[in-house]
Amino acid sequence: MAHNLAQCRVLVQKAAAIKAKALFLPEASDYVASSPIETISLAKSVTDSPFVLGLQDEAKKHKLAINVGVHEPAQGGKKVKNTLLWIDAEGKITQRYQKLHLFDVDIEGGPKLKESDSVERGNEIVPPFETAVGRLRFPEPSLRLHRQHAQLLTYPSAFTVPTGRAHWSTLLRARAIETQCYVLAAAQSGRHNEKRVSYGHSMIVGPDVYPEI
């Protein structure tokens, strides 16, 4: 987590240097563990997580809002929450979203991953909220969010490589077409451990469906 925080600090500094108004980081930016047991053992509350506290300090120092995915302990200690945080330019956590749709997949010859074994499902859809870059809403479900006048949809992700190759770009472009919103998708990339590799390919897709980045 110390290494990941150091990497994120560099990204914050680069974003601040070009006068960005917000930085969008991926799902599970604090860590990607090699087992459900390790996932649970590493989780810390946002009030005492060095990773989150470090990002709050960076946000305040650089006057830069940060959208970041982290793990939090769930009640009972048997699972974690997969949480997306909005840290405002004052370094305060002002919005949070707990992942609703968990990733359970078993593909023959491909990935086998059951997120629900270690992650507690969220149960709330929070309405869009105002930011310096537009009216933002966390990921699910996009059409309902569009009806609530969301302008930006953010999909912080850690996609597996086979599902990423098959679905990543198509899903993001479909959400942009359906909602006529901008879609911001920050994605983990590369090998995390002996079991997990992420697809990457972060992108921003505009309502005209062509990737901006």
Automatic annotation (TrEMBL):
Domain CN hydrolase: 1-213
Superkingdom per UniProt: Eukaryota
InterPro entries named in the record: C-N_Hydrolase, C-N_Hydrolase_sf
Listed Gene3D superfamilies: Carbon-nitrogen hydrolase
Protein name per the record: CN hydrolase domain-containing protein
